[in-house]
Amino acid sequence: xxxxxxxxxxxxxxxxxxxxxxxxxxxxxxxxxxxxxxxxxxxxxxxxxxxxxxxxxxxxxxxxxxxxxxxxxxxxxxxxxxxxxxxxxxxxxxxxxxxxxxxxxxxxxxxxxxxxxxxxxxxxxxxxxxxxxxxxxxxxxxxxxxxxxxxxxxxxxxxxxxxxxxxxxxxxxxxxxxxxxxxxxxxxxxxxxxxxxxxxxxxxxxxxxxxxxxxxxxxxxxxxxxxxxxxxxxxxxxxxxxxxxxxxxxxxxxxxxxxxxxxxxxxxxxxxxxxxxxxxxxxxxxxxxxxxxxxxxxxxxxxxxxxxxxxxxxxxxxxxxxxxxxxxxxxxxxxxxxxxxxxxxxxxxxxxxxxxxxxxxxxxxxxxxxxxxxxxxxxxxxxxxxxxxxxxxxxxxxxxxxxxxxxxxxxxxxxxxxxxxxxxxxxxxxxxxxxxxxxxxxxxxxxxxxxxxxxxxxxxxxxxxxxxxxxxxxxxxxxxxxxxxxxxxxxxxxxxxxxxxxxxxxxxxx
Length: 510
Description:
- By secondary structure, this protein is α/β, with parallel strands linked by helices.
- It has three domains: 14-30 and 40-181, Rossmann fold (3-Layer(aba) Sandwich), CATH 3.40.50.980; 184-364 and 380-403, Rossmann fold; 407-509, ANL, C-terminal domain (GMP Synthetase, Chain A, domain 3), CATH 3.30.300.
- It is 30% helix and 24% strand.
- The longest helix has 17 residues, at 41-57.
- The protein is globular.
- It starts with 13 loop residues before the first helix and ends in a 5-residue tail after the last helix.
- 50% of the residues are buried.
């Protein structure tokens, strides 16, 4: 696959790395809580072991792929770890994909089998037919084969795939990102332990689901790596559900995304006075606006550690640090990672200049499954191209300005939508903002803002003019939005990122 640099030494099986120490030290301690109840480390180990043995009994061999379409819960955790134990590469999949997406992934991955939750079976049967896929489709778990012998942990070679994660496909067909067995422990050691300082006595909850790279680290890799407890929720993420989970389980570390923190701040159920045991929050997915970061800490006394990661790097590789938060900046590289900013011709830019962020580190993917051309384009000379535009401030902090594809050239000068959005969000009436480029009556590119107002604010022409004047007073003249459109919501991906192409293509539909 030719990805982000071949490991120099053989890695320990990822499932063994995450489970063995916990089972040895405190087998009866609670590891996960889901809708079915509480589950100890020993329970997880036994169930994952049974699933590994079942996969082998059904004829799956090291190197085979296993698609997983299950809601967040212990069933998904054990299927993921059990497959890795057997040397089978699990593919945890977004449960909100279409039949067409599943059909494409089945054909592309060549999965030998799929474990699917009951509610998704009709969609998957159609996807199986559309893909002409001949693999086994199992409901919730492989069928039991009596007297199945136990299996040990597969001993992986340096470039053996441990698991695949398929990207959202927002810029084309989904891509299967292949990670080796060492990637999870690298992210846990660097970001989870060294940056966040996760502890054995923490209770963790992530709004991002397990099938995302961000959620997989938050809800599985990080808590297992330190022996912490994790709360898994299969339902829809709403402010009401979040408050309930934080209260009921005494969550101490909460992983969210910017749009969720904004919704929580605007929710009528916000705890006043603040009485939750949270000690730390984390945000990723897209840049956290400075105003949301400040407002959250002012109301709760709890910091949000903002960072940027990617599926290709498995988790966050540049971030702020607890106790040293710079609102509106992404921060510094995580220990053991390097980052640099380059121009279109690949030359490193000067501090303050915009360019594409490149990163390298121990959790870089092995490449894209079945896609050597895209692998060669993204993984270059040991560096991973992120497709994100950044600059470094005077203190060396990395500041995100959005995706390369989202940058706008107005009056011949590059404009970052994120910069304009951050200014608009500082206005008291604005809850969320998204900025795109729109051609004016003279055929010239100008900025246009879509605004979601805070509860109680009324969308009027006067307010639109006020927001334009507010932005114009705080930005260079060519940057302020020439058009303001009030909307009830912003279209977002399942990870919380704004779907700007929807705003560009069908703004009237909102």
